Backbone:
């Protein structure tokens, strides 16, 4: 998984999970501007990583209701947009685009049911 590569994840020396695990119920950790879309579920946490738009040409829609949170992807990739993104990527000397969209369907969309015991105030 790309989220485990150096500079694409939280430094293992940072006790993030130790801090997060103090929270009970259904929880979501979301971060952005990485080069990959990913969704990982681990115990009571769902980790959602949002890609840079040039790597994954699209957007993530996040819908929150009283019952659930739904993350879905809109894919805007066309040959023309991909060619434009490739051109921009080739122009930046310290940056290269991923050759294709890297996440599979399980990494793009999810519905998370709200914990009925947790009520927002």
Residues:
């Amino acid at each position: 998984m790309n989220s485990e590569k150096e500079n694409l994840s939280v430094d293992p020396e940072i006790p993030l999970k130790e801090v997060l695990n103090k929270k009970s119920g259904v929880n979501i950790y979301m971060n952005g501007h990485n080069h990959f879309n990913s969704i990982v579920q681990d115990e009571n946490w769902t980790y959602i990583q949002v890609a840079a738009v040039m790597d994954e040409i699209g957007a993530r829609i996040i819908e929150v209701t009283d019952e659930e949170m739904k993350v879905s992807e809109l894919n805007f990739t066309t040959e023309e947009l991909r060619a434009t993104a490739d051109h921009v990527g080739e122009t930046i000397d310290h940056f290269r685009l991923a050759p294709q969209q890297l996440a599979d369907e399980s990494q793009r969309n999810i519905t998370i049911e709200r914990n009925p015991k947790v009520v927002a105030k």
